[in-house]
Amino acid sequence: MSAIQTHYRNCNICEAMCGLEIQYQDKEIISIKGDQKDPFSKGHICPKAIALQDFYHDPDRLKKPVKKTADGWVEISWEEAFDEVTTRIKAIQEKYGKNAVGTYLGNPNVHKAGNSLMLPNFIRALKSRNRYSASSIDQLPHHFVSHYMLGHGSLLPVPDIDHTEFLLIIGGNPMVSNGSMMTCPDFAHRMKSIKERGGQVVVIDPRRTETAKKATKHHFIKPERDALLLLAMIHVIFKENLDNLQHLEDHVNGLDEVKSIAQAYSPEVVAPSAGIAAEDIRQLALDFAKAEKACCYSRMGACTQSFGGLNLWLTYVLNIISGNFDQEGGYMFTQPAFDIVKLNSRKNRPDSYKKYASRVWEFPYYNGEFPVATLADEILTSGEGQIKAMVSVAGNPVVTTPNADQLDKAFESLEFYVAVDIYINATTRHADIILPGCTALEIAQYDVSFHNLAVRNTVKYSPPLFEKEDYQKDDWEILQELTARLSDKPIQRMTPEMMLEYGFMSGPHKDKGINLQKLLENPHGIDLGPLQTCLLDRIETSDEKISLAPEAMLEDLPRLKKAMQEDQQTSFSHRLIGRRLLRSHNSWTQNSYRLVKGRNECTLLLHPEDAQAKGIENGDRVEVISAVGKVQIEVEVSDEIMPGVVSIPQGWGQAGKGIRLSVAEGKSGVNMNKLTDHKRIDQLTGNAAVNGVPVNILVTE
User: Fold this and answer.
1) Partner residues linked to 418 by β-bridges
2) pLDDT classification of 588: cutoffs 50, 70, 90
3) Cα Rg, the chain, nearest whole Å
4) How far is 534 from 326, CA to CA, in rounded Å?
5) How many Å apart are CA 673 and CA 695, to the nearest integer?
6) pLDDT tens digit sequence for 44-58
7) pLDDT, tens digit, 9 for 90 and up, residues 111-170
8) CATH number of 140-335+534-555
9) CA nearest 395: which of 364, 372, 414, 415?
10) Sign of the CA dihedral 360, 364, 365, 370?
11) pTM here?
12) What are the domain boundaries of the chain?
């Protein structure tokens, strides 16, 4: 037995990029702790990090390709697997057309450098426009708004949380997520620092979240009414002549249009619909505008709803007109060593928005994909262009996307389905062939996407902790092989490391000599300094000005106005929202016994007044019914949820015939997406509207 050794890397379960110190002996993990020398996370980790060893040692994970037969799953060779996959895909495309093969890319792809860098070539080789991903479940409005206002969908602002004095959080819970579309390890400490320097943190959410409980102030808001609050705040700022664009004064178009639009949305007008008192809205706007350094950050609750695009647009507008955009303490831009914006410049490229419409519901095409909410119908609806085969990479859409039962039926009906995945889960159980990659501890890691969203400029690369076995392949190697075979070209011997080196050489910190060798010599990572004003050097609009009033957003405003005029109460008594749990991440952490042990956290939060009215007590089981489905679930009576609203966490419900997740099946919980409606989307961006779903609550016998 060898001596105990130490390895440093970033955790890649969520977005926070927490540095880890892992002690190990041979193939066994002795301990996983926070890396005290990591310049970004400074020793912080959340409970999820310890699960990395569970994924590595998981007896349920696949290491070799498997094929479904009449007698069940059997292992096959890589050569046989690649031959059959490419033969079947080519045959289906020859028979039905290129678009008969669809792709779904799950959330874990952005947590692996190899996947992020190799997937574009694979997508091009497939030559199908039927592309879907987790982006249209939870983040498409961010990219959409940056595309139309700043010229590039990946030029994404983040709060300069280490310098702000007023942080307004709408629909986000970074105490649990450590940032989402904001890479921010140890948010709790950073929020405490804001308050210690005399600043404020205000949370707007239908639930008094973990973040709201620690904030300076929290306001309940009715689901899907955030855009009205933002418009009212903008109205107050203009009316009180508090608008000040700072250095962006001569670099903005559309200011007068926004000012004119906001006139109709006074606090008094929007208060009844938003559920926040007019005087509270006015005071919030004044406090925000008068703070020396302020930032408004809108996330999941504001994004994954019917008005996600408008919410993110108005979030940008609020920060811009108050002088808090691209300014210290405001909404700023990271300058990553590997700059995905510069490497994939969109300047002067044709706009792809609505270049196509989905075949069944005519949902909008954006950013090279269709909304995943329409995927089931594209598979189940016969006719020209019907999807006959699917390729999924690191995804479990039957659990994570709207109207789960319908999508389950759709995947079951496919002529051919290949999955790149390490598990037989609720989705991949329908596959004909599964090609397993490696787990986090077996791969080299550089956070391509999350360095781009970090609240401080840092850079870090980690080699594999454990070398994979000779019979294993990394995800990127699988994708590279499939790309070559589908293109009928020799395999390109390009590695992720070669691509990273190229990016470092052209990045904003090339003068610091950033390269892989230097990063290997600095296993804790390298601090590149705080966020700096840089937008005018990075903006990608054709006139190099911020478009404050894009036509697409203006055309969507009548839909919001109509919603404001309508009574939220229909034949359904409640609105359903999701919630995030500290020891859970989407659907792919439920097979770790360390994360799911303890009390049942997959419950329905119900306000005491609503519980009393229906005769429901804490711990009772109820039936929740929506327009598309129903579930039975345990009730947790709590005043942290506002009356008329209920909450179920996402990513649960992984039990059923053919699923091989032994831990998750014992703690399966309830799949919230049996209730979400695939026809409820943000009509502007195509993002799924999984928050604000109308439901009824029935007491079970």
Assistant:
1) 391, 433
2) confident
3) 24
4) 7
5) 12
6) 999 999 999 999 999
7) 999 999 999 999 999 999 999 999 999 999 999 999 999 999 999 999 999 999 999 999
8) 3.40.228.10
9) 372
10) negative
11) 0.97
12) 5-57, 67-137+342-529, 140-335+534-555, 569-699
Which of 481, 302, 389 lies closest to 99 in space, CA to CA?
Answer: 389
136/66 Cα distance (integer angstroms): 30
More confident residue, 350 or 579: 579
* CA dist list (Å): 165 to 288, 486, 562: 9, 53, 36
Q: Which residues contact 585 (CB under 8 A, 6 or more apart)?
A: 13, 14, 48, 651
List phi, psi (to 5°) of 325: -115, 125
- Judging by DSSP bridges, how do beta strands 693-699 and 604-606 pair with one another? unpaired
In tens, the pLDDT along 471-489 reads 999 999 999 999 999 999 9
What is the rounded CA–CA span in Å between residue 564 and residue 225?
8
Query: Residue with structure tokens 């009548």?
Result: 558
Give pLDDT, residue 347. 82
Where helices occur in 197-254 by DSSP H, the ranges are 210-214, 226-239
pLDDT of residue 569 exceeding 60, the answer is no
pLDDT mean across residues, the chain: 95
What are the tens digits of pLDDT across the range 293-310? 999 999 999 999 999 999
pLDDT digit string (tens) for 612-642? 999 999 999 999 999 999 999 999 999 999 9
**The predicted structure's pLDDT at residue 492:** 82
The residue among 509, 524, 545 whose CA lies nearest residue 339 is 509
Question: How far is the C-alpha of 386 from the C-alpha of 92, rounded, in Å?
Answer: 11
Residue 348 region, left (φ>0) first, then alpha (ψ -120 to 50), else beta? left
Given a contact cutoff of 8 angstroms between Cβ atoms, the answer to whether 374 and 357 are in contact is no
Strand residue runs (E) in 233-322: 252-253, 294-298
**Tokens, residue 347:** 């300047």
Report d(CA 544, CA 538) in Å as an integer.
9
Are 485 and 544 contacting, i.e. CB atoms less than 8 angstroms apart?
A: no
- pLDDT higher than threshold 60 for residue 568: no
Q: How confident is the model at residue 666 (pLDDT cuts 50, 70, 90)?
A: confident
Measured in degrees and rounded to the nearest 5, phi and psi for residue 612 equal -65, -40
The string over 524-535, giving b where at least 16 C-beta atoms fall within 10 Å of a residue's C-beta and e elsewhere, is bbbebeebebeb
Contact 445, 435 (CB under 8 A): no
Continuous segment of H or E residues that includes residue 632: strand 630-637
The CATH number that domain 569-699 falls under is 2.40.40.20
Which tokens in the block code for residue 457? 């400029």
Residue 665, burial from CB neighbour count under 10 angstroms (0-12, 13-18, 19+): middle
pLDDT band, residue 37 (cuts 50/70/90): very high
Q: 615-623: which pairs have CB atoms within 8 A and are 24 or more residues apart?
A: 615/699, 616/697, 616/699, 620/699, 620/700, 621/700, 622/697, 622/698, 622/699, 622/700, 623/697, 623/698, 623/699, 623/700
Residues 6+ apart with CB under 8 A from 600: 634, 667, 669
Element (H, E) at 529: strand 526-529
Give yes or no for a contact between 195 and 161, defined as CB atoms under 8 angstroms apart.
Answer: no
Secondary structure class of 688 (helix, strand, coil): strand
Which H or E run includes 105? strand 101-105
Asked if CATH classification 3.30.1330.10 holds for the domain at 67-137+342-529, the reply, yes or no, is no
> In sequence order, what are the residues at sequence separation of 6 or more whose Cβ sits closer than 8 angstroms to the Cβ of residue 255?
245, 321, 548, 549
Select from 3.90.79.10, 3.40.50.1820, 3.30.1330.10, 3.30.200.210 the CATH code of 5-57.
3.30.200.210
Phi, psi of 669 (to 5 degrees): 70, -155
Least confident of 75-84, 481-490, 505-514, 567-576: 567-576
Q: Which two tokens stand for residue 181?
A: 């579309």
Contact indicator for 516, 461 with CB cutoff of 8 Å? yes
